[in-house]
Design brief:
Length: 251
């Protein structure tokens, strides 16, 4: 189906109280951060979207597609990248990518090279064509899946759960997905990822309690935090590569 919008209609929190945020509408190209303490209901909100809830989940929320309740769940609507991504199939990386492209009837491109080109820009550990899927590290696995979702998958809605724990370049990952005009929801504790989204919904007690739009002050904070995050990333890569930090790097 052609997706023009997805809407989240309020349900209730764990105490049975009606959610303060009554409705969130998202269109292709939108990004929404889902924030709140551990246990506040972030993953449940993502799950409601993945299931296209019809008031039949513990939250009581309803999900609309193009302004109406779907008559059936469209295939391939949502792609989810959870904190635990594991492969069951016993094959190598190139075969997996080529097979996925063939399943989606996308011939004529060198998909393994294209997908691995992006994946290896996201991940510090090189992924090779003949690497077994089940031998990839957690960071390699998530980098490969983000590249696959961005370049091959037709899913218009992307759900990301704590991308900051993936050990990858999160800025490049979000940019790669957003450039494809997908709707992206990311549950995160990372302030840089939060402020990369124009809007954020705040969860508390299983309920949506605030919906904020990034303002001018937060845009300035975004740039400042991104600079600090880059310093942290460079220091991590320096130490991980066996080198030493010097005073010249911070003065």
């Amino acid at each position: 189906m052609s997706l023009a919008s997805i809407s989240i209609l309020a349900g209730q929190g764990r105490d049975g109280g009606v959610e303060v945020v009554r409705r969130i509408d998202l269109v292709p190209g939108d990004t929404l951060a889902v924030v709140g303490p551990t246990g506040s209901g972030k993953s449940v909100l993502l799950s409601d979207i993945e299931q296209l809830a019809e008031g039949d989940t513990p939250s009581g929320r309803r999900i609309l597609l193009n302004g109406r309740a779907p008559e059936r769940s469209p295939l391939g609507l949502v792609a989810t990248l959870s904190q635990r991504t594991n492969f069951v199939i016993d094959t190598n990386v190139a075969t997996f990518v080529a097979t996925h492209a063939a399943c989606l009837d996308k011939p004529g491109e060198d998909w393994p090279n294209i997908v691995l080109g992006l994946a290896n820009r996201l991940c510090g550990e090189p992924i090779r064509h003949d690497d077994p899927l089940q031998g990839l590290s957690g960071g390699q696995t998530r980098a490969l899946m983000i590249a696959d979702i961005a370049l091959i998958s037709d899913a218009p809605v992307i759900l990301l759960d704590e991308l900051e724990n993936a050990g990858i370049d999160k800025h490049a990952a979000i940019a790669a997905l957003a450039d494809r005009g997908k709707i992206i929801l990311t549950a995160t504790h990372d302030p840089v990822l939060v402020l990369m989204s124009r809007r954020r919904v705040v969860m508390r007690g299983g309920a949506m309690v605030h919906l904020h739009e990034r303002d001018a002050a937060e845009t300035l904070w975004q740039e400042r935090l991104r600079g600090l995050d880059e310093i942290f990333r460079n220091a991590r890569e320096t130490l991980r590569g066996g080198e030493r930090l010097t005073l010249g790097g911070i003065l």
